[in-house]
Specification:
The complex is a heterodimer. By secondary structure, chain A is mainly beta. In chain A, 8% of the residues lie in helices and 57% in strands. Chain A has 2 helices and 11 strands. The N and C termini of chain A lie far apart (40 Å). Chain B is α/β, with parallel strands linked by helices. Helix content of chain B is 28%, strand content 16%. In chain B, strand 7 and strand 8 form a beta hairpin. The longest helix of chain B is centred in the first third of the chain and has 20 residues. Chain B is elongated and about 90 Å long. The termini of chain B are far apart. The chains are: A mainly beta, B alpha/beta.
Chain lengths: 218, 231
């Protein structure tokens, strides 16, 4: 059902993220039965490193398009099991991405955008009793943007923006809950940019990106 | 058996998630957007209809040739103030003005009539006709063309492609001198015309001391146009 609807969506980078996440949803069974908890009932510390890709921050109508190139992120957080198949976590991460501006075949740099995110995440784990266990993650929070203040939309935009993300994490679970857990994740995120704070010619909108990386939990 | 499939909570959950993602995808295609402003006055009336500007994203170095005998006004201060005002105008970092460490590294040279020109002129006519300010560059090659690099007066090559001459004898004080330099720097950035409003910095006889909204709109407009001449 979903597959027949997606091709009719507007052509944009977001479609890749939707296709990816829909494929994950279809491939990831959410079994009702209980299983051994991979994280344990107590809070555990997480650390992650990864990359962030994409980001269409401004689409000009007779004006340049402003995009971010691939960048790096690092983060720390804490998470714990809150149900048989559900874990919850909070975390902060910071990242930086070069900004590129394109117009009429010409491109130039717009500086570097740095971003600090504070985000809460809920993960729904599968019931597979194998060492590799995927989960579906959904999160929301706020992002604090800085840098690239010489150009729109960052020049006049609010520095604080709401964000949301969804994606999958594939954990390598150790039978011993006291050992560290290694995971890889791919998340699709969206950010609402209030770009019309002072510039009447600018209209607010959504920015979507994909982040991927490794996470260690102890 | 059939009812079990229809009301399977697992499948319903997956379909709900899929629907949410599709809705999210639709709204996230709505990136922030905007338009460039239209010009407030024609930026090509002094350049015979030719639009000229610097390549987008360029760091433009400016050299102020202070010379000697300028006791009443400060050219360096006027240039720095003019650069600060114009640097605030681009919407997409199309240019950034900065002071050059040496004349050899400069893209624009500003000098006063009271001092000798620090660069040799190109093959084009230099004819200030006693004007308070004069901005000079020399297009070369077929259209779309580029501006000729001017050689240093003492010999040697340079990056200089625009020469600005101002006349301190035509202004009464430092504010007037700054406005004059700022006006000429507006020409050097691509405004090849004069405003018909006396309130604008780019009016023929400027009284404004900063670029007005109309000056800003005109420069922002031309920064989005493909130039006939690249400086």
């Amino acid at each position: 059902m979903a597959r027949s609807t997606i091709p009719a969506l507007p052509r944009c980078t977001t479609r890749r993220g939707v296709l990816f996440l829909t494929a994950v949803l279809l491939a990831t069974p959410l079994a009702p039965q209980a299983f051994a908890q991979p994280l344990g009932p107590t809070w555990r510390v997480t650390a992650e490193v990864g990359g962030v890709f994409g980001g269409r921050w401004f689409e000009g109508n007779g004006a340049p398009s402003v995009r971010t190139e691939p960048g790096a992120t690092i983060g720390v957080g804490a998470q714990r099991m809150v149900g048989p198949n559900v874990s919850a976590g909070v975390g902060v991460k910071v990242g930086a991405q070069p900004v590129s501006v394109n117009e009429d075949g010409a491109s130039w740099t717009g500086g570097t955008l740095t971003e600090a995110d504070a985000i809460g995440t809920v993960s729904f784990l599968t019931a597979q009793s194998t060492p590799l266990r995927p989960s579906l993650d959904i999160g929301a929070g706020v992002a604090v943007l800085s840098g690239a203040r010489a150009l729109l939309p960052f020049r006049d935009a609010s520095r604080i923006a709401p964000i949301g993300e969804a994606g999958v994490t594939l954990r390598r679970v150790d039978p011993n809950p006291n050992k560290q857990e290694i995971a890889v994740f791919v998340h699709y995120g969206m950010l609402r940019l209030d770009a019309s704070a002072t510039d009447a010619s600018t209209i607010s909108g959504w920015v979507s990106r994909i982040s991927a990386g490794f996470k260690v939990t102890r | 058996m059939r009812s079990k499939v229809l009301f399977d909570p697992h499948r319903l959950r997956m379909r709900s998630c899929g629907a949410c993602l599709i809705v999210a995808a639709v709204i996230s295609c709505d990136a922030p957007t905007g338009t460039r402003p239209d010009f407030a006055y024609d930026p090509t009336t002094l350049s015979r209809g030719q639009l000229y500007r610097w390549a987008s994203g360029q760091q433009i170095s400016v050299w102020a040739e202070a010379g000697t005998g300028l006791s009443t006004v400060d050219l360096g201060s006027a240039v720095r103030q003019a650069m600060t005002s114009w640097n605030a105008v681009p919407q997409f970092a199309e240019f950034t003005l900065s002071m050059a460490a040496s004349i050899g590294e400069a893209d624009i040279v500003v000098y006063d009539r009271a001092t000798a020109a620090p660069v040799s002129l190109g093959s084009c006519t230099f004819d200030p006709q006693g004007s308070a300010g004069y901005t000079y560059f020399c297009p070369t090659g077929p259209s779309p063309t580029t501006a000729q690099k001017l050689s240093l007066a003492g010999g040697g090559t340079s990056q200089v492609s625009v020469l600005i001459r101002v006349d301190r004898g035509r202004v009464s004080d430092q504010n007037g001198y700054t406005a004059l330099v700022m006006h000429e720097l507006g020409h050097a950035l691509g405004i090849g015309g004069h405003s018909d409003s006396p309130n604008d910095l780019m009016f023929g006889l400027p009284r404004a001391t900063v670029p007005t909204m109309r000056d800003r709109q005109t420069l922002q407009y031309l920064l989005g146009k493909r130039p006939d001449i690249t400086l």
